[in-house]
Amino acid sequence: MLESLLDPWRWERSFQDFPDYLSGFGMTLRVTVVGWLIAMAIGILLGLISTKKSRVLKVIYQVYVQFFQNTPVTIQFFFFYVGVPVIIKQLFQMSRTYRLSKFVIGIFGVGLYHGAYIAEIIRSGIQAVPVGQREAACSQGFTENQAMVHIILPQTLRMILPPLASQTLALLKNTSTLAMVVGLDLMYFADKSVGYTGYFQGYLIAAAMYFAVCFPLAILVRVLEKNAARTPGLSGRRRRTAKEAV
């Protein structure tokens, strides 16, 4: 086994497919960036909704979060690939089914899934800020929204940076699920190369490319956690925020 992994011919043959790996890696990074933006938008919106007194809004929040957190992301990808086109066809009475593009499936697949986790992170961060600060802001003439923007959210952001970075790392790795559904990402081309050549080196090349992006993110998470731990009064609240969001 070790000899086959060190075989220079196998490495040379595997690297012949490197242009495909780069193409897939580009797709992975694009899906990661746009999917993260969607996840953040959903997370912020739902996180703020969770702090409202309306029971209807809280029910919407809970339904969304519980659904996406308790169903596999793979099934969600398949839903966008198979289910959404059928729903669109029925709604608009189309004569044929139109598939969503692979990029759209990817960004909404990871975006909606991780949006549920980011919403929980933001909700926990907001709740970790002492209620007295909101009351003090309102007593000084701030409206509830102004208190949230100028007083609560800046403190929340400092607490939630480490778990947010962790979610970014998880989102990047979850893009590999695209290979099982629609393809064109890094894992898809790695699997295609290994299936064609039979050489395991293709997976190692893909692993190295994932590692090149994920390792710096993991270091960033550690740095943010250490900075949070050194901030007086923040480390305990930050730990509670991360624990509640899991």
Describe the structure.
This protein has 246 residues and is mostly helical. Helices cover 83% and strands 0% of the residues. The chain has 12 helices and no strands. Helix 3 (18-49) packs antiparallel against helix 10 (186-197), helix 4 packs across helix 6 and helix 10 packs antiparallel against helix 11 (201-230). The protein is flat.
Give the C-alpha Rg: 22 Å
Distance from first to last alpha carbon? 39 Å
Q: Kindly state the mean pLDDT as a whole number?
A: 87
Category by helix and strand content: mainly alpha
| Low-confidence sequence ranges | none
Helical content band: over 70%
Strand content: under 5%
Q: How do the helices and strands follow one another from N- to C-terminus?
A: HHHHHHHHHHHH
Oligomer: single chain
Summarize it.
This protein is an all-alpha fold and 246 residues long.
Question: How is the secondary structure organized here?
Answer:
Layout: H1 2-6, H2 8-15, H3 18-49, H4 55-69, H5 73-91, H6 102-128, H7 131-139, H8 144-174, H9 178-181, H10 186-197, H11 201-230, H12 235-245
Helix pairs in contact: 3-6, 3-10, 4-6, 5-6, 6-8, 6-12, 7-8, 8-11, 8-12, 10-11
Features:
246 residues, mainly alpha, 12 helices, flat
